[in-house]
Specification:
Blueprint: H1 7-25, H2 32-39, H3 43-49, H4 53-73, H5 81-91, H6 97-112, H7 120-143, H8 153-173, H9 181-193
Helix pairs in contact: 1-2, 1-4, 2-3, 4-7, 5-7, 5-9, 7-8, 8-9
Length: 196
């Protein structure tokens, strides 16, 4: 009896292989042959799942977004709105090996989108998803009276987005073994400052 293949799992495994190639060699060295070798499959098998290299790169970028969403959705209920917002914000930062790998790949693909037209739409969608998440966090703080009266909600959402992007960039550029507690302190201090 033929073995059933979980096609979504296969797509994710191939995208993870592309991640490893990107992290070691950069986006410019991603090829069907190299990713297939990394995944331990033939180039023909990879092309059966992803017809083109662009299709593989687009899915690779979307997988990062999907995993972040899944982690955020899995956050257990928090005692306060403020704690819920901070829990979501922490999931957006590369505070462990898995999230660091995602962020490195995401940053590489965001840069590659300048030259690779097929990545521009997914890059814009990922950017908007983060902006929407920041807006949601600020709305939660505003509705929960954790945002000082008179604060411009739209401006604070943009500012939070910039803080998260900046922290993520700094964390990725530090050695993987570096302490990340400074970043969570900056995040906590920023969120606390919104109430005054």
């Amino acid at each position: 009896m033929p073995r059933l293949i979980d096609h979504e799992q296969r797509r994710e495994e191939l995208a993870e292989a592309a991640w490893r190639v990107i992290m070691r060699h950069g986006v410019g060295h991603v090829s069907v042959r190299m990713v297939a070798a990394e995944a331990g499959v033939s180039a023909g098998s990879l092309r059966h799942v992803f017809r083109t290299q662009s299709e593989l790169l687009v899915f690779t970028m979307q997988l990062v977004v999907n995993r972040v969403r899944a982690r955020i959705t899995a956050i257990p209920p928090q005692p306060t709105i403020r704690q819920a917002v901070e829990a979501v914000a922490r999931e957006l930062l590369p505070l462990d090996d898995e999230r660091r790998a995602e962020m490195e790949v995401n940053m590489a693909l965001f840069s590659a989108a300048t030259a690779e037209e097929s990545l521009r739409g997914p890059r814009a969608e990922a950017h908007e998803a983060l902006r929407d998440t920041c807006r949601w966090m600020i709305d939660q703080l505003d509705n929960g009276i954790d945002l000082a009266p008179g604060r411009d909600v739209q401006l604070e959402a943009l500012r939070l987005h910039a803080v998260i992007d900046g922290l993520a960039d700094h964390l990725v550029y530090e050695p993987p073994t570096a302490d990340t507690s400074w970043a969570t302190s900056v995040l906590t201090t920023h969120l606390d400052s919104l109430k005054t």
